[in-house]
Every structure is written in structure tokens, then in C-alpha cells.
Specification:
The complex is a heterodimer of chains A (544) and B (270). Chain A is built from twelve helices and 18 strands. In chain A, the strands form four sheets. Chain A has a seven-stranded mixed beta sheet with strand order 2-3-4-6-7-18-8. In chain A, strands 11-10-9-13-14 form a five-stranded antiparallel beta sheet, with no helix packed on it. In chain A, strands 12-17-16-15 form a four-stranded antiparallel beta sheet, with no helix packed on it. In chain A, strand 6 and strand 7 form a beta hairpin. In chain A, helix 4 crosses helix 5 and helix 7 packs across helix 9. The longest helix of chain A has 106 residues. In chain B, 43% of the residues lie in helices and 17% in strands. In chain B, the strands form three sheets. A five-stranded parallel beta sheet of chain B has the order 2-1-3-4-5, sandwiched between helices. A four-stranded antiparallel beta sheet of chain B has the order 6-7-8-9. The chains are: A alpha+beta (544), B alpha/beta (270). Chain A: It catalyses: ATP + protein L-histidine = ADP + protein N-phospho-L-histidine. Chain A: Its EC number is 2.7.13.3.
Chain lengths: 544, 270
């Protein structure tokens, strides 16, 4: 019984009982005992009340008194217990009340915090929207009023560029030309900032350019004779972005200043870098694009600024240029890959990354959050292209090195690259030694050549080491080298193989080229194949 | 010599374009400037009200050849629209060009939606003078050369191909890119359609078509011919309204019909 009551009490912690049974039985017994004592002291009362005499023997009184004391002790004990219980119940009740109050206070403070957070966010968004709208209305006003000033500046710069006297460096005309390009870029930014839908605005412009292009094609007229140039060179747009808008000083792979006509004179790929060693650029010959080059420049500028931000952060130091750009053409599309050393983008963010207001950067006070990639996507859509990104991971691989010494002897090395905490480590195959970040081999004889191939890249690469110390980055992947091979020491006595950490993010952009547009590629060409078509019945060619 | 009706509230643009508009030779096929002593007749208005009054007073026979309007006049975004509507009410066939800094905004959208202009030119673009002249010439070609214009058109049933501008119309609707109706139709399908119509009722095989297109026979196979025909059919079906109906007609051997087994197609109007 007791245990079930306790269980009930536990189950109902708030079922308080405050009643106390008063020790009235002890009081009654005291009165009876006093009356008994009175009878003993006044024997005449016994006869008067006609009570039996044997009841009033002194030892009976002692027994009764003892019985009374025992009963009183139990009764008082029970009373004290009840009193304590009530006291405890009161304490518990107060505790419960206090707890509730505390809980209410905590909830209230949470609610306050939540309210603060929501209002902060709301304010931030309102401010953001207001700023955006405010800027747009200012830009629209500036555009309306500034069009004449723009026209005057443009005419003046055009006149100055075409009439400037040649100076020693021939740089004055170039300066005017650059000022004109900068002015037009500024104007196009202003133009885009006042549109309701950037993608539609660019799409409409490209549509107009496309119509011009088609007219020229149908009538057999040269594009140069048209009053408005409907096409532009994407290589030049990329170089202009780097030089004019990001301030990079470009040079070829040997550090010589990049000659302007280099990539126009050759049909091979041109590799460039910048004087800070930040960018690695590979330009392959590619067709022109329809539209305004400044729209592509804005796209590239946003992507490159993002890449440069991560490249200049300390934790992403690397032994090769941290930003790699590759431009080439495939299936009548201009393809551009841009690698940066930024942190991997979570799968959950995959659908969000190009949305307005979304940013992977969490730093406070970072203004213009989530605008860059939104612009990039809008411009890409305007060009009828597509953009995606991949997280670049390090991979395990097996490398085979063939060392040829001056005395004609040959040594083979089999190196295994394995991953530990996503970082590549290397060790000799079959060796019990632990894999290390950098493999070193002391050489007893002078080395002449090293040949290297791997499971992932079976084509053999050959390095000449006869000329002394040499450092060699993976030539198969100039933009994103997987390894570094060094022959150090004065006589080339140590061979060092370093697997490189290539983690980062790579953006892939595809835009239809002019020939793609002429042949009707573009949006239709970019659509993924319909796999359901594979199960359909056989149809004649004209059904398609 | 042509008559130009021009409404522009900013003197900078008037000064900039006046010599150009006065001296340019807009005659079809003509290049360069007018002969000495000859000028185009320009009527320039800075405000919408006097322009409207002038339209009301002008005789129907004394119509201008073309009108150039600024969309926003002295702060009034509807200023150009009201002038355009008044002009079209009096001369419905008058070509009108909007020359404005509001290109790419809601004003341009409204102008095309309300059908008050044939063209909308941005003032701030590169080589604005060249663009303006070239677009004006394109618009004037229709009105200045009506007889020659008819010869420059290929008409077959509901199909009309303008051999100068290469615009193709089916049942009064312009053919566009079937993958994206906002974009123009690619040049090769337009050329193919022209050759098919010119050869009709004879069919054209892949070899013959490659020859007419001056295409490399290595590259222009039956597969590419078929692909272009597919694009063309879809484009015409979109202009037709009922896509399935048009495709059914093609399958039944009408319009762009498949001919024989030799990879040939034929134009058969109803």
C-alpha cells in the first residue's frame, strides 16, 4: 500500500495535502487522567459517583499514567510528523513556484532574444531592400540626367584617343582607350542596375545582336561594316577584366610581360600568370560571343573577386597559383573553368548558392552579401548559358618513377598517395614506414632524367635533371597540379616528391558561341538528353 | 529628301543629330550624304503640346515620312506615348522610332506592349549615329519603295519571306526560334525555307540543298538537313497557333513535306 501511495505521489507531484490532524486524543486523555487524579485525591467523590473501588488503586493510576505517556508520545510524534510533512509540502510548493517563475523568466528572455534576432534580421533585410531600391532609383535618376554627360565624355575620349600625338611609350592613346573602356563599363553597370530583370535585359540585348548577326550572315555582309558590333572576343574580355578591373599585371609563364598579340598569332593554348603569382590562366583559341563584352566582364569580375578573396587568405596558402582560369571551346560553347581555394560548398547550399542574398562568407560587416554569384547567374541566363560548381577533392593515386643515372643505371620507385584527414600523404609501396607529406630520397649517383606516370594519368612525363637543381610541377594539369617534384642540392643529390593539396571549388561556365547561335544551338543544345526517349518505340527520322 | 517629325526635349541631342538627319540620304539603296543644296525637312519640337497641335493642323496628305520621339518629355514619362498615339491616329502606317535613355526599362516594355513604336533605340550606346541612321533606313525602306518592295518578297500561300530583311511571316506571325520565342530563327532554316519555296513544287535533295547553301557536303548531311527542317517545322507550328495541326499537315504531305526515300523535302502550300 505504502509503495503504491508513494508511486501515486511521485506521479502527481503537485497533489499537495496541507491538513493536520490535531492531537485531540492526547488532550482528552490528559483530561481523563486529571479527573482520575482528582478522584484519587477526593475519595468521597467515588462513593458519590458509585464507581467500583478496585479501579482506584495507586498501581492502576501508575499504569494508566504510563499508558498515557506512551500514547501521548506516539500521538505527538504523529502530529510532529504531519507538521513536518506540511512544512515540506509548503517548501516544495514554493520551490515549484520558484521553478515555474524561473522557467517563465527564461522563456521570456528567450522570447526577447528571439524577438531581437527576428527584428534585427528583419531590419537588415528591410535595410537591404531599401538600400537596393534606393540605389536603383538613384541610378535611374543618374542615368536619366547623366546620359548627356556620358555622351560628352565618351565623345571627348574618342576624339582624344584618335587624335593624341604619339609619345615615347605610345601610352597616351592607350590611356584614353582604357578610360573609354572604363567609362563604358561603368555605364553598363548603371544600365544593369536600373533594370527589373537583369537576365531578361541581357537576353533582349543578345537577341538584338543575334538578329544583327543573322542579317549579316543572310545578306553576306561583313560584321565589321555593321554600325553596332554584335560580337566580341571572350579572351579579350577575360584579359580586360584581369588588367583593367582587377589591376593584375599579366606575364607569360617565364615572367616576361604578356605581348598583346601573343594569343591572336597562335592557334595553340597560351599560358599566362600575373606578377603576384595569384592567377594561372590558360587561353585556348575560341570563337566569339554575341552580346556586350561588359556583361561578361561583370560576370568574370564577380567570380574572380570571389576567387581572389580566398586566394589571399592565410589558411589557403599553396605552392601553385591559387586561382586557376581555363578558357576553351567545346561543342560550339565557350567553356570557362575557374578554380579557387575556398572552402567546399555544402550539398545543402547547392540550390542556394546563386540566390540573391545568400553568401558563404559569414564575416560581419561584409557588405553586398550574396550579390556577386546572383549577378553571375543572372548574366549567364541572359547569355543562354549555364553555370555549375564542383567541390575539388584530393584523391589517392599510385605514382611510378623511373630514375636514370649518369652511369646508365636505372632505378624504379613506386609511390602510393593516400589520404589522411583529406590531406594527401605519400610513402613507398610495400614499405612499413608511415606515409609522409613529402617523400625524400637520397641519391648516391648524379641523376639525368626522371620519368613519372600514375594510375590516374598513365601518360609518361619526362624531366631533365642534368642541369642541376630543378623544380617541376605536374605538367598534365598546369592549372591545378597534383604533385611537385624537386631535385635539390648542388649536385642534385636529393629527390623530393610532394603530393599537393588541391582542395577547393571549381566553377564551370558554358555560353553558346556565335557559330553555335548561327547553327541554332544555345538553349536547346544545353538541354540534358531525355532518358525516357530511350524506351520509346522505333520511329521514322521525320518523327523527330 | 524626306520629312522627319522629331520631338526631343534636350538640346544636346538636337545639336548632335540635326546635321546628320538633315544631310543623310535615306533613299533606298543610297549611301552617304545628299547632294549640295538638298536637305531633309526636319520639324523639331521640344514639348509634347506644340507637337500635338502641329499634328492636328497638318493635312493628311502632308504626312511626315518618319517620326523620332523621345519617350520621356520634360519629366513626363508618357509624353512620347501621347505624341506617338496622335501620329498613329492620323497616319496609321507612319514608322515611329523611340530614341530614349530609358532602353531596357519599363518604358521600353510599355512602348512595345502598346504598339506605339517599331523600334526603341538607346541613346547611350556606342556609335549611336550609325545605329540611328541604319534603323531609320530599315524602317523607311518599306514606305519609300512600295513597288520594289513587292519584288523583294516571296509569297506562297500564307507564307511571306522578305528577301531584303529576311524576315519570314506565316499567317501574319513572324517566325522565331522554337527553343526560345524571344530569339530570332537561325539563318540556315530561313535560307532552306527560301530555297524550298523557290523550287516548289519540285523537291530538293540533301545534295541539292547543300549546293544551294554552298555548304560543305562533308558537314551538311541528311541528318543536319533533317535537323534544320525539324527546327523550321516547329517554328512555323508555333506561328501557326495549333502546333499539332500544323505537324499533322506536314505528316500528311503538305507544307514542308518529306519527299521519297532520298532525303528530300518539298514545299507544298495548301
Amino acid at each position: 500500500m505504502t509503495s503504491s501511495t508513494d508511486t501515486k505521489a511521485e506521479l502527481k507531484p503537485d497533489n499537495f495535502r496541507f491538513s493536520i490532524r490535531y492531537p485531540w486524543r492526547t488532550l482528552l486523555l490528559v483530561k481523563l487522567l486529571l479527573f482520575y487524579a482528582l478522584l484519587l485525591l477526593q475519595p468521597e467523590l467515588i462513593s458519590l459517583l458509585k464507581l467500583p473501588d478496585f479501579l482506584f488503586r495507586p498501581e492502576y493510576f501508575s499504569g494508566a499514567f504510563l499508558g498515557f505517556l506512551i500514547f501521548a508520545w506516539f500521538d505527538l510524534r504523529s502530529f510532529m510528523q504531519q507538521k513536518n510533512r506540511v512544512k515540506n509540502q509548503f517548501k516544495k510548493l514554493w520551490d515549484n513556484k520558484r521553478q515555474l517563475q524561473q522557467r517563465a523568466q527564461t522563456s521570456a528572455s528567450h522570447t526577447d532574444k528571439l524577438k531581437m534576432f527576428i527584428s534585427d534580421k528583419l531590419l537588415e533585410y528591410i535595410e537591404y531592400d531599401e538600400k537596393y531600391l534606393h540605389f536603383r532609383s538613384i541610378a535611374a535618376e543618374v542615368r536619366h540626367n547623366g546620359v548627356i554627360s556620358f555622351d560628352k565624355v565618351q565623345s571627348a575620349l574618342q576624339y582624344a584617343a584618335s587624335h593624341s600625338l604619339p609619345d615615347d611609350n605610345g601610352s597616351t592613346a592607350l590611356q584614353y582607350q582604357e578610360a573609354l573602356s572604363g567609362m563604358r563599363y561603368l555605364w553598363d553597370l548603371l544600365d544593369l542596375s536600373t533594370t527589373d530583370n537583369m537576365a531578361m535585359h541581357i537576353g533582349a540585348h543578345i537577341s538584338r545582336c543575334e538578329e544583327l548577326l543573322f542579317q549579316a550572315e543572310l545578306q553576306g555582309t561583313a560584321l565589321e561594316s555593321l554600325p553596332l558590333q554584335p560580337v566580341f572576343d571572350p579572351q579579350q574580355a577575360l584579359l580586360d577584366t584581369l588588367r583593367l578591373h582587377l589591376g593584375a599585371t599579366l606575364c607569360d609563364a617565364d615572367g616576361k610581360p604578356e605581348p598583346a598579340a601573343l594569343f591572336q598569332a597562335t592557334t595553340d593554348a597560351v599560358h599566362l600568370t600575373d606578377s603576384d603569382g595569384l592567377f594561372s590562366i590558360e587561353l585556348q583559341p575560341c570563337d566569339r560571343l554575341a552580346g556586350n563584352p561588359n556583361h561578361l566582364i561583370l560576370l568574370l569580375e564577380n567570380l574572380l573577386k570571389n576567387a581572389r578573396y580566398y586566394a589571399t587568405k592565410k589558411q589557403y596558402k599553396s605552392r601553385f597559383p591559387p586561382v586557376s582560369i581555363r578558357l576553351w571551346e567545346a561543342q560550339q560553347h565557350l567553356c570557362l573553368t575557374l578554380y579557387n581555394r575556398g572552402p567546399h560548398i555544402a550539398d545543402d547550399d547547392r540550390g542556394q548558392i546563386f540566390k540573391l542574398g545568400f553568401s558563404t562568407r559569414r564575416a560581419r560587416g561584409h557588405h553586398g552579401k550574396g550579390l556577386g554569384l546572383y549577378f553571375v547567374q543572372q548574366i549567364t541566363q541572359g547569355f543562354d548559358g549555364d553555370i555549375a560548381f564542383d567541390n575539388v577533392h584530393n584523391r589517392s593515386d599510385d605514382y611510378y618513377l623511373r630514375l636514370e643515372y649518369r652511369d646508365g643505371s636505372v632505378e624504379h620507385l613506386h609511390l602510393q598517395q593516400r589520404l589522411q584527414d583529406e590531406l594527401p600523404l605519400v610513402g613507398l609501396a610495400g614499405s612499413e614506414n608511415e606515409a609522409v607529406a613529402q617523400f625524400e630520397q637520397r641519391l648516391s649517383k648524379p641523376l639525368v632524367t626522371v620519368e613519372i606516370s600514375s594510375e590516374g594519368q598513365p601518360q609518361v612525363q619526362r624531366l631533365d635533371c642534368s642541369g642541376g637543381p630543378v623544380s617541376w610541377l605536374d605538367p598534365q594539369h598546369p592549372g591545378l597540379p597534383r604533385w611537385l617534384l624537386q631535385c635539390s642540392g648542388r649536385k642534385g643529390e636529393t629527390l623530393i616528391f610532394t603530393p599537393l593539396d588541391i582542395r577547393g571549388v571549381q566553377f564551370n561556365l558554358r555560353l553558346p558561341t556565335v557559330s553555335g547561335r548561327l547553327d541554332g544551338a544555345g538553349t536547346a543544345g544545353l538541354q540534358a538528353p531525355d532518358v525516357h526517349e530511350l524506351h520509346s518505340r522505333f520511329r521514322g527520322p521525320d518523327d523527330f | 529628301m524626306i520629312k522627319i517629325f522629331w520631338v526631343e526635349d534636350q538640346s544636346h541631342w538636337i545639336e548632335k543629330f540635326r546635321p546628320l538627319l538633315e544631310r543623310s540620304n535615306f533613299a533606298p539603296g543610297a549611301e552617304g550624304e545628299l547632294a549640295a543644296g538638298e536637305n531633309n525637312r526636319l520639324e523639331v519640337f521640344r514639348f509634347a503640346e506644340p507637337a500635338l497641335a502641329r499634328i492636328a493642323q497638318t493635312d493628311a496628305g502632308d504626312a511626315p515620312h518618319i517620326a523620332i520621339l523621345d519617350a520621356s518629355l520634360n519629366g513626363n514619362d508618357d509624353g512620347g506615348f501621347s505624341v506617338s498615339k496622335a501620329l498613329l491616329k492620323k497616319w496609321p502606317a507612319l514608322p515611329i522610332v523611340f530614341l530614349s535613355e530609358h532602353s531596357g526599362t519599363g518604358i521600353e516594355q510599355k512602348a512595345f506592349e502598346e504598339g506605339v513604336t517599331q523600334d526603341f533605340i538607346a541613346k547611350h550606346q556606342r556609335n549611336i549615329e550609325g545605329v540611328l541612321l541604319w534603323r531609320m533606313k530599315a524602317l523607311l525602306r518599306q514606305s519609300l519603295q512600295p513597288v520594289a518592295n513587292k519584288k523583294a518578297q516571296l509569297v506562297s500561300g500564307d507564307l511571306r519571306i522578305d528577301l531584303v530583311s529576311w524576315e519570314v511571316w506565316w499567317q501574319g506571325n513572324k517566325l522565331m526560334n522554337p527553343a526560345n520565342p524571344a530569339r530570332p530563327l537561325a539563318p540556315t532554316p530561313r535560307k532552306i525555307l527560301r530555297f524550298l519555296v523557290e523550287a516548289s513544287p519540285r523537291p530538293l535533295t540533301t545534295m541539292q540543298m547543300a549546293d544551294l547553301l554552298e555548304a560543305d557536303i562533308e558537314k551538311f548531311s541528311y541528318a543536319s538537313y533533317r535537323q534544320h527542317i525539324k527546327i523550321l517545322r516547329h517554328s512555323m507550328a508555333a506561328a501557326h497557333g495549333h502546333e499539332q495541326e500544323f505537324m499533322d499537315q506536314c505528316r500528311a504531305g503538305r507544307y514542308i513535306a518529306t519527299f521519297g526515300d532520298e532525303g528530300a523535302y518539298c514545299w507544298k502550300p495548301l
